[in-house]
Amino acid sequence: xxxxxxxxxxxxxxxxxxxxxxxxxxxxxxxxxxxxxxxxxxxxxxxxxxxxxxxxxxxxxxxxxxxxxxxxxxxxxxxxxxxxxxxxxxxxxxxxxxxxxxxxxxxxxxxxxxxxxxxxxxxxxxxxxxxxxxxxxxxxxxxxxxxxxxxxxxxxxxxxxxxxxxxxxxxxxxxxxxxxxxxxxxxxxxxxxxxxxxxxxxxxxxxxxxxxxxxxxxxxxxxxxxxxxxxxxxxxxxxxxxxxxxxxxxxxxxxxxxxxxxxxxxxxxxxxxxxxxxxxxxxxxxxxxxxxxxxxxxxxxxxxxxxxxxxxxxxxxxxxxxxxxxxxxxxxxxxxxxxxxxxxxxxxxxxxxxxxxxxxxxxx
Length: 364
Ligand code: ADP
Ligand code: MG
Fold this sequence. Notes:
The chain is an alpha+beta fold and 364 residues long. It has 2 domains: 3-178 and 355-363, Ribosomal Protein S5, domain 2 (2-Layer Sandwich), CATH 3.30.230; 182-352, 2-Layer Sandwich (Alpha-Beta Plaits), CATH 3.30.70. It is built from 9 helices and 13 strands. It has helices spanning 73-85, 109-125, 131-146, 153-160, 202-220, 240-264, 268-284, 291-302, 328-341, and strands at residues 4-15, 25-41, 46-51, 55-56, 60-61, 93-99, 165-170, 175-180, 188-194, 307-311, 318-324, 348-352, 359-363. Strands 1, 2, 3, 4, 5, 6, 7, 8 and 13 form a 9-stranded mixed beta sheet that branches. A 4-stranded antiparallel beta sheet has the order 10-11-9-12. Strand 10 and strand 11 (318-324) form a beta hairpin. Helix 2 (109-125) crosses helix 4, helix 3 (131-146) runs antiparallel to helix 4 (153-160) and helix 6 (240-264) runs antiparallel to helix 7. The radius of gyration is 20 Å and the shape is globular. The termini are close together.
């Protein structure tokens, strides 16, 4: 039997948080860190799973329906289910998973796993789909099978990544435009501070933020917040909390577009300002940061970063910062010390570079 190996990266969202399901804009990069799935088809009608990180998964039938599979296997089962629902062929076999994407850190190890499973399965069945279809199927698995109500950004980023390029995504038509993101040339680095805080309440809080946006769009008489522009509309939203949620989404969309312009003209001072402004909006208007995350973001800026913001859905995860490469070590040491003084757990800190998108490795 042939073996099919696919790999898909995690991602960092540079800017544009909670904008995907509001059909706005975001600008992620794919990470160099990635998840590899090695699929060995057999003639059974089941998939057995093993992950180097999580151990053995539940073996599941190709016909498994939502609710049938628990734990991390549900991400793979969700993909198989979504493929089947869309009328594509799936086959049984064993899947071996390995990843160097930090898990549960807001760097989208979930989309990396889904996209790698999908590409490996499609290679085995000879199914050819474009990247947008793959992204939508992976998202459908995560939404309707795993039960996590996430937008499309993670999958689009994992599939469309390119070396030293960010992706300006317009969720109105799911288009992806490359934007140069070559920090090295400018003596800069993207530092990632993983707080190592588990985002326990994130699913419920994510849902409630989505509900606020949907409710406000209904009140404004539009299908999505993309159809409204300018903060003047805020006066028409009755609920004070919903109003702030919408203000975040509208101002965040503007910041993403401004950030793409700033990157195109190599104005990194402006990029930094926009990152810090995005963090303030997530903290004050969307209320998805924590004391721990705010301390990290504030410390990064105080210690010399051009700008810093939480990345990912919120309530933990990672903070990213744009820093001069020569000062990177000094800044991260000072930030680690500030975190310790604040009484929070030690972070994991690394430097990220924009890497390539998901790919099929080998077909022996
Ligand atoms: P994030 O996508 O930010 O890493 P999520 O909570 O969305 O966080 O997804 C993390 C989950 O995805 C894990 O709890 C696990 O169920 C699954 N997962 C991700 N990577 C792996 C892996 N390498 N092996 C097994 N399960 C994984
Ligand atoms: Mg995820």
